[in-house]
Automatic annotation (TrEMBL):
<feature type="domain" description="CoA carboxyltransferase C-terminal">
    <location>
        <begin position="276"/>
        <end position="515"/>
    </location>
</feature>
<protein>
    <submittedName>
        <fullName>Methylcrotonoyl-CoA carboxylase beta chain</fullName>
        <ecNumber>6.4.1.4</ecNumber>
    </submittedName>
</protein>
<dbReference type="InterPro" id="IPR034733">
    <property type="entry name" value="AcCoA_carboxyl_beta"/>
</dbReference>
<dbReference type="InterPro" id="IPR029045">
    <property type="entry name" value="ClpP/crotonase-like_dom_sf"/>
</dbReference>
<keyword id="KW-0436">Ligase</keyword>
<dbReference type="InterPro" id="IPR011762">
    <property type="entry name" value="COA_CT_N"/>
</dbReference>
<dbReference type="InterPro" id="IPR045190">
    <property type="entry name" value="MCCB/AccD1-like"/>
</dbReference>
<dbReference type="InterPro" id="IPR011763">
    <property type="entry name" value="COA_CT_C"/>
</dbReference>
<dbReference type="Pfam" id="PF01039">
    <property type="entry name" value="Carboxyl_trans"/>
</dbReference>
<dbReference type="GO" id="GO:0004485">
    <property type="term" value="F:methylcrotonoyl-CoA carboxylase activity"/>
</dbReference>
<feature type="domain" description="CoA carboxyltransferase N-terminal">
    <location>
        <begin position="22"/>
        <end position="273"/>
    </location>
</feature>
Amino acid sequence: MSTIRSTVDTRSEEFAENRESMLGKLAEIDGEHAKAIAGGGEKYVSRHRKRGKLLARERIELLLDEDSPFLELSPLAAWGSDYQVGASVITGIGVVEGVECMISASDPTVKGGASNPWTAKKSYRAADIAAQNRLPVINLVESGGADLPTQKEIFIPGGRIFRDLTRSSAAKVPTIALVFGNSTAGGAYLPGMSDYVVMVKERAKVFLGGPPLVKMATGEESDDESLGGAEMHARTSGLADYLAADEEDAIRLGRSIVKRLNWTKQGPTPKPDYAEPLYSAEDLLGIVPTDLKVPFDPREVIARVADGSDFDEFKPLYGSSLATGWASIHGYPVGILANAQGVLFGEESQKAAQFIQLANQIDTPLVFLHNTTGYMVGKEYEQSGIIKHGAMMINAVSNSKVPHLSVLMGASYGAGHYGMCGRAYDPRFLFAWPSAKSAVMGPQQLAGVLSIVARAAAASRGQEYNEEHDAAMRAMVEGQIEAESMPMFLSGMLYDDGIIDPRDTRTVLGLSLSVIHNGPVKGAEGFGVFRM
Ligand code: COA
């Protein structure tokens, strides 16, 4: 039988403790999400409303099909930086007239919706997701353009936003701009490069240079409306394809454009008759130990994520520190690789490489569930070729062409993060649980390595080693690495696509798989040289 039988004792003290700790972390993350939702704060939100405008999130809500989900991406972008959490833009995937679209809405309540370096990074990520998954793009535009004091970080790389729009169009994936307000200078190319443009009457302002700049450049006297008003663009320049009477009308027009796209997904359709998991997602709160050094069985997670809790394990008797096997999620077939005991040995690496190749042979997406401290170190392992074996797994992950999804459940350290398809290995989506931690190694280990190196350096210089300084250095480094390994920090850096409630894992993976299937799902024809 391939149905997983859970052995989690939901009444145990340990379960209650784990649950308590996970709920605490979730509350903390909710608090940070609330900051992103609050946008520029009360003063700017009420000013925006007084102008008779909808908030960016309200625009998105009206655009989406009623009661359909919105998979928001990178909501904590810019966390820990000098900029507002969320980075003055909202990005995510939502369903419009039955079509999954990448939606990007600047938030005019945060610094006039101007793009700072984090806004740019978040927009690049959204553009990559749209391109990789063949998603039509809808931009809801109202922005002050580049954040002028930080222009040096965005001006030159930022050109890719416009490049991506026109490449999307060249790939026959439509792009739509709904312009609600200011869209000046570089921003004018958002509608300029889009296939379809809607502008709101008396609100949209699209020009390369506003009246003061024109006066400076040519001496010409002008006004907003004649330079870049919606009426002018609809009747004279032809940049606007549709003139909307108001914001609601612009959203209605946007929806009717999508309705006429004749969009069809290119990936295989899911099986319609799948079963729900046999165990409650609620249990996922109590499965991850508070101390990540204690391993947990990822099959307990799979039992709450996979259809019917059904998991056909591949090579169950070999390389037991990594579980590999076949399952389906919301009717989409997947291969799953899940760390079971933390460390990856040679056997696990070879098993992973074989399994990844098998998935490519049958065009099946892969899901990586991370909880690893990395590849095994030590004389015995080096001599038996752990580098070659790890490289084999990393080769397979790098050259695999089926879509990958990664979920950081617990630890994701060292090259283990790479082998399990970390951020640099281009998983289509990467989400983290609040319990996740990721770094080159654990904080104590890293501080310890620095201490050993410093001690050896002092000895080679013939100096005495100052133990007091060593202890202080270790404490400081441990604190720093601990902070930098936390999910909010990593999410702020755009190293994941969002921190999710473990209970939502099945839903989020299901939505991601559905999004992925907008494009074809095809395995690799060949891999690089595997070092045997
Ligand atoms: N860079 C940095 N900060 C900007 C900005 C930009 N491009 N655009 C606006 N801001 C800031 C303002 O300084 C203001 O900050 P403060 O409230 O802390 O003083 C805040 O955002 C709100 O701007 P405000 O002008 O009060 O908002 P508004 O809604 O009345 O007008 C704009 C919004 C975008 C029309 C107006 O700010 C503007 O014209 N900005 C410059 C646009 C431009 O020419 N950009 C160049 C693009 S390359």
